[in-house]
Design goal:
Alpha-amylase_C_pro, 20% strand, Glycosyl hydrolase family 13 catalytic domain-containing protein, alpha/beta, eight-stranded parallel barrel, GH, Glyco_hydro_b, 13 helices
Length: 615
């Protein structure tokens, strides 16, 4: 919330102010005022220095290998009970290839027991202390597999130098073991500060009793009841959905101000001011690395719980958790306001990174505009301009993919452009690659598979490998044309033999070229497109300049010296994305169809020949 972060809110322009007043009166179709945000200071794309000279600190004379996160699931990942092997076991088999072409961190789905243990993704959290070990909610394993399989995944990841990021859901609970009669007030879902029914206190039945009988007190004997929650979204007495604020409770004030106060998100909302709640979280985060070899956390829905609690949790991790100071921690704060997000990072003493939501929005809007999109605005007010060392950039994730509440579509033709931007540029945080862009999606249903990257996942695998080898050194930007932009990296002798790169992309039909500087030390070199999308060669002149083309079908190319170290590994990379055997099954059916067609044609020819008259 802006006031809590000492961030002033400028007055709304008159049209937005009128809309806000109308929404407050709850006029039909007026929208709701709490989503109308003030327009604060915005950074233009030119805020990034050009050239951007990256100097290694004295204590680290050589730049380390670039970090790349892989989100290892989608919302529609099939449950382990319906596949030949569990998702944890599948990830274990995929780790060698993922680490080989540059994945250094793997974000795993919530591994704690869900209310729907067999099918729930884990955001319907039931028991933090059950990692797929106890018979609860109809299953011992979670949707993703058993605790033993998860332990094996983390062990193999550590051996490969890949850090596991554990998805922690600390905002709410659901799937209670018993219900309670409580006093509560119903509030407006669009304005949580407005009590309905004249503020009448009524008795409801809330599912807020948690005893975790299947675990029997193992690891933690703490039980939960109505004292530990602020609100619920279901009255079992009247069988009515809504938002109820429990008696004697108030929403936390240090949360996001969307819908008036966005403390309550769903299910049974946890009261993070309660000392038992805080102690449970502190105990759990200290216990977690004693069970699994992890290297950090992804914190879910942090806009919905106390900022002060979040800050105390981060300090607790640094002070009391084994190797906690080395953990990489990223939070999900969905808000298109980079100045606000930057202030939040500062409040957390720069101990947390945030996902670059404004950049994701830019990628979506510009790609969906097609030829009318202005590529110069790709990084307009992106969070990576404000806090490049505390940001995770992404193109798609499980919340923004098809059919989800935060769906933010990126046009398929633009996916190579988007990944080139987040993977190969400097000062753009740590990029996160989405599961479905490497392995496909079941977003259209379990019987309808969507291939990854428009059927060419090798393209994305090559980009990750190019990041690993060549995305180092000084960066030069050329973002002066609305329909064709590019940038170069000069390279560093510690990686790829010092080879650099030149990326160029367009959003219109027709061949385009950009003259860009790659460094005098590359003069005389012959560069080729490592994505294999644009034919030809580019000669670097004596001053370190080259004219780099991009194919005319809204193309994207990444040019590197043809003698660069690792060239053959990149060019010849063949990425196998067919982890479910769908492509193999389609090929098998096609072979059977073609064989059957051949047999029918042969029979027809023989029948025809037997009926021909003798000459």
């Amino acid at each position: 919330m802006s006031t809590f972060l000492s961030l002033t809110n400028p007055p709304l322009p008159p049209p937005l102010a009128a809309l806000s007043r109308a929404a407050t009166r709850q006029e039909p179709s007026s929208g709701h005022s709490t989503n109308i945000r003030p327009l604060r200071h915005r950074l233009p794309p030119s805020s990034c220095p050009n050239p951007l000279i990256l100097l290694s600190p004295p204590s680290d004379p050589l730049p380390k290998q670039n970090e790349t996160i892989f989100q290892s699931f989608e919302w529609y990942t099939p449950p382990s009970s319906t596949t030949p092997k569990s998702h944890w076991s599948l990830l274990t088999t995929l780790l060698p290839s993922l680490s080989q072409f540059g994945i250094t961190k793997i974000w795993i789905p919530p591994a704690c027991k869900a209310a729907d243990a067999k099918n729930g993704n884990g955001y319907d959290i039931y028991d933090l202390w059950d990692l797929g070990e106890f018979e609860q909610k109809g299953s011992t394993p979670t949707k993703w597999g058993s605790k033993a399989q998860l332990e094996e995944l983390c062990r193999v990841a550590e051996g490969r130098g890949v850090k596991v990021l554990f998805d922690a859901v600390l905002n709410h609970k659901t799937g209670a073991d018993y219900k309670e009669r409580v006093k509560a007030k119903k509030v407006d879902p669009l304005d949580r500060n407005r009590e309905l029914d004249g503020g009448e206190v009524r008795e409801i039945e809330s599912w807020t009793g948690f005893t975790f009988p299947g675990r029997g007190g193992r690891y933690s004997g703490r039980e939960w009841d109505r004292r530990h929650f602020t609100g619920v979204d279901w009255d079992d007495l009247t069988r009515e959905k809504g938002v109820w604020k429990l008696g004697g409770k108030e929403w936390c004030v240090d949360v996001d101000e969307e819908v008036g106060n966005y403390d309550f998100l769903m299910f049974a909302d946890i009261d993070h001011r309660h000392p038992d709640v805080q102690q449970d979280a502190f105990d759990w985060v200290k216990w977690l690395p004693t069970q699994l070899k992890i290297g950090g956390l992804r914190l879910d829905a942090i806009k919905h719980y106390s900022f002060q609690f979040q800050k105390r949790l981060l300090r607790h991790i640094d002070d009391n958790v084994e190797k906690g100071k080395d953990w990489f921690i990223v939070g999900e704060y969905w808000r298109e306001d980079s100045e606000f997000l930057a202030k939040y990072i500062e409040y957390m003493d720069h101990r947390i990174s945030l996902f670059d939501v404004p950049l994701c929005s830019n990628l979506s809007k510009i790609s969906m505009a097609g030829e009318r999109g202005d590529l110069r605005d790709l990084f307009k007010d992106a969070l990576c301009l404000w806090k490049p060392n505390n940001v995770v950039t992404f193109v798609v994730n499980h919340d923004t993919q098809q059919g989800q509440s935060l769906e933010t579509p990126v046009a398929p033709w633009f996916l190579p452009h988007a990944y080139t931007l987040i993977l190969l540029r400097a000062n753009t945080g740590v990029p996160c690659v989405f599961w479905s862009d490497l392995y496909g999606s079941f977003a259209s249903g379990p019987s309808s598979f969507i291939p990854p990257m428009s059927g060419n996942p090798t393209l994305l695998a090559r980009l990750i490998l190019i990041r690993k080898f060549y995305a180092y050194g000084t960066q030069h930007d050329l973002f002066s044309h609305p329909h064709c932009v590019g940038f170069t990296r000069e390279g560093h002798s510690a990686h790829g033999g010092g080879a650099g790169l030149a990326a160029v992309m367009g959003n219109q039909w027709g061949l385009s070229k950009l003259k860009m500087y790659v460094g005098k030390h590359h003069s005389g070199e012959k560069w080729i497109d490592f994505l294999r999308l644009c034919p030809g060669e580019v000669m670097i002149d004596d001053e370190g300049w080259g004219e780099f083309p991009v194919s005319g079908n809204k193309g994207c190319s990444v040019w590197v010296s043809e003698t660069a170290e690792g060239k053959d590994e990149v060019i010849n990379l063949k990425f196998n994305s067919d982890i479910y055997g769908i492509e193999a099954e389609m090929n098998r059916r096609q072979s059977m169809f073609e064989r059957r067609q051949y047999e029918i044609e042969s029979m027809s020819r023989r029948a025809l020949a037997s009926n021909l008259p003798t000459v």
